[in-house]
Amino acid sequence: MSSVAVGMSMIYISASLAVGAAVILPARVRRILVGLLTTVSGIGGVLAGCAALVVSQRFSLTVHQVLQFDGIELQVDPLSGLFMLLIGAVAAAVGVYSTGYTGPGGHHEHQEVFPPGCGAQSRTAQTMLPVFVASMLLVPAAANVTTFLAAWELMALASLMLVLANYRAGKQVGEAALWYAAMTQAGVVVIVVGFGLLAGGVGGESFDAIREGTEALPPLVRSTAFVLVFIGFGSKAGLVPLHVWLPRAHAEAPSHVSALMSAAMVNLGFYGIIRVGFDLLGGGPRWWGWLMLAVGTLSAVYGVLQASVATDFKRLLGYSTTENLGIMLMGLGAGAVFAADGNRMLASLFLVAALLHALNHGAFKALLFLGAGSVMRATGTRDLDRLGGLASRMPVTTAMVAVGALGAATLPLGNGFVSEWLLLQGFTHSLGVGEVTDTVTTLAMPLAVAALALTTGLAVVTFVKVVGIGFLARPRTAGAAEASESPESMRWAMGAAALVCIGLAWFPALLGEALVRAMSVLPSIEDGSPVDRDAVTLRLAGISGSMSPLLVAVALVAGTIAVAGAVRWTGTRMPARPAMPWGSGRRSLSPRMEYTATAFAEPLTRVFDDVLSPEHDVDVTPYVESQYLIESVSFRQRVPDRIEARLYPPVISAVQRWGRWAQQASNGDLHRYLAVGFVVTILALAAVVATL
Asked: Would you call 630 helix, strand, or coil by DSSP?
């Protein structure tokens, strides 16, 4: 039996056992067993993915008469293996983390509203967790339309149930679940229509049949199918303007579920775009690439702008997910443009950057959400304005969040730096390689560089705010001042994720061969090999660019130690002069004197006022004796999602009007129903005949 088959068996056997344990066993036992079995499922995904990537093992399985049409059909190739590796690694860490997170003690999300045994600790939530993991691992292994859609829908339903785990907390959880359900099911509808066009056009629903027959399809059918699946998968990936569910659902779901959704599930939307656009359709015209590049740039810039002004820790991470998926789509779009031009070297460079960033994003975003869960369990809040002082109370969690923040801020010691460096190299060298002379490319590539630079700068500001104000400042509430470190299992899980982040940051060249194998299944760029593989140094083939992340990290660490040592040595040779720092006329500093997250982001809200449209509310309370003497001043700032506020209310109103019309039409008259059905059938037949 191959390693891929062993891994696939581990996934579904352990998931089945976990579901049984969650249904049958009592709370104290099931949380540990479900968590460990979920970890085993994740390890199975890692094993299957590594076997497909490293030794190019392939796995195929067909089971008829289980689902309609061709039944269940599975096939694991290197591209599937890459995403199974990502999902499995995140799931393995989350499984270990959940054993401590759902245990007794601490402040779980909204724990004050309901007793232990509910929320993330409930039987329903713990039953859905292994189902969610198994369905996510099934999506990239699916090899026909029916299997793919069944796994996709199961993943959507399981994640919806997990988002609703804290439904007793208040209406914000229900609203988040409603937005998530609506956007997910709308996305499923357009994906089904897109796959239907392809399967109907080639006369078969297997991915092999679509690959073989797609070239014979008319260009209009191919492009229509691509746009439909791009919209559907873009909704799951949280791309602007279909992102509105993401910050809500990520904020209200249990933190370990948020890690799975942000680090693993949304990446499957990215996988779907690659699988359909580059594999099943074999690439397309240049405007496909320009569409992806434009949407990716908008998502990256808008996502990081919203993250930079957010004060809710988990909502901030949700918008950061939109930003990073946008960065990945920028690479995918640029790759599609140059693949259509026949420049496979540049196309493969962009694809390598995008795939590597998918791995990097999965690693640091999982770590950050696990860190956010640790903070919430210890303090009972996710509001950065109410935190502070955690560096001394929770040193392990602080260190882990700092590692994740380095990656998310794309600083040289973080793992996000390398993939964005590759992407930047592609954009900056695109005009100097080959015969790129058209006006659109000449204008677009420098604009992409500017957008990427702006995104990177704002990401640095965002995560300086998170670490500096949330962890290094003085505690602002009693919960922050009395916080204690998380249980050992949670710390072990965060430590494993941090080690993966460090490995990806310092040794990314070791993944060169695996990424090239993942791209080998894409016919438009299968011959491209943009990176000369080396254990230490990244060397770009055909481009004068190279970098050694390990040497950069060693140089930065050595320089920091040297500067710190010099300062300490100088200080020991000078007489000490104790003195109190200036405290604005006060003898001691207090938390009220330091920046809050809101104050830190105030300059950005002013600079980007036209985009963000912040809302301010100032309450002045005077003394009763005199209106001229102020007792207190309260300032509140809210930065709404402007795209949501402008775009979605008209759509929602139209849907409501249509619903009221449909309700009025549903009067129980059978003759009316038959007449309407007859008219719709005639119109549909006429449309089909017109297309022949």
From this structure: strand
- Which residue type, as a one-letter code, is found at position 653? S
Name the average pLDDT for the chain: 84
Which pair of structure tokens corresponds to residue 55? 């030794």
Nearby residues of 423 by Cβ (< 8 Å), 6 or more positions away:
327, 330, 331, 350, 353, 354, 357, 452
Taking phi over 0 as left and psi of -120 to 50 as alpha, with beta for the rest, 204 belongs to: beta
In contact, 688 and 680? CB cutoff 8 Å: no
**372: enclosing H helix or E strand:** helix 344-379
Q: If you search the block for the tokens 């790759």, which residue do you land on?
A: 335
Residue 25 makes CB contacts below 8 A (sequence gap 6+) with 33
Residue of 341, 331, 304 lying closest to 433 (CA atoms): 341
Backbone phi, psi, residue 638, to 5°: -130, 130
Across the range 284-292, mean pLDDT stands at: 91
Q: How far apart are CA 142 and CA 80, in angstroms?
A: 9
Q: Is 508 within 8 Å of 356 (Cβ atoms)?
A: yes
Q: What is the 3 state secondary structure string of 273-336?
A: HHHHHHHHCCCCCHHHHHHHHHHHHHHHHHHHHHHHHCCEHHHHHHHHHHHHHHHHHHHHHHHH
Residue 488 CA to residue 391 CA, distance in Å, equals 17
Cβ neighbours of 315 (radius 10 Å): 20
Confidence of residue 111 (pLDDT cuts 50, 70, 90): very low
Rg (CA), the chain: 26
Are the C-beta atoms of residues 106 and 167 closer than 8 Å to each other? no
CA dist., res. 20 & res. 645, Å (int): 44
- In order of 241, 361, 450, 605, the CA distances from 308 in angstroms are 18, 18, 18, 9
Token representation of residue 558: 């050595």
Average pLDDT on 385-405 reads: 90
Long-range (24+ apart) CB contacts under 8 A made by 111-114 are 111/380, 112/380, 113/168, 113/169, 113/170, 114/168, 114/169
**Tokens standing for residue 373:** 């869960």
Domain boundaries, the chain: 298-564
d(CA 530, CA 533): 9
Residue 265, H or E segment: none
Dig out the tokens for 579 from the structure. Answer: 């003195």
The percentage of the chain sitting over the pLDDT mark of 90, rounded to a whole number, equals: 34
**Strands 531-532 and 615-622, sheet pairing:** unpaired
Structural tokens at position 318 = 């949700």
Helix axes 171-202, 145-163, angle to 10 degrees: 180
Tokens in use for 447? 């604009």
Distance, CA of 640 to CA of 646 (rounded, Å): 10
Widest pairwise Cα distance in the chain: 99
Here the tokens at position 547 are 């970098």
Please, which pLDDT band fits residue 583 given cuts at 50, 70 and 90? low
Q: At which residue do the structure tokens 């996934």 appear? A: 11
Structure tokens at 183: 């956007």
The DSSP code sequence of 488-530 is HHHHHHHHHHHHHHHHHHH-GGGGHHHHHHHHTT-TTTTT---
Residue 525 has pLDDT above 60, yes or no: yes
3-state class (DSSP) for residue 81: helix
Global pTM reads 0.90
Burial of 28 (0-12, 13-18, 19+ CB in 10 A): exposed
The values of phi and psi at residue 382, to 5°, are -120, 10
Helices (H), 507-641: 512-519, 549-572, 597-607, 609-612
User: Contact 41/15 with Cβ under 8 angstroms?
Assistant: yes
Contact present, 43 and 10 (Cβ < 8 Å): yes
Measured distance CA(154)–CA(144) in Å, rounded:
16
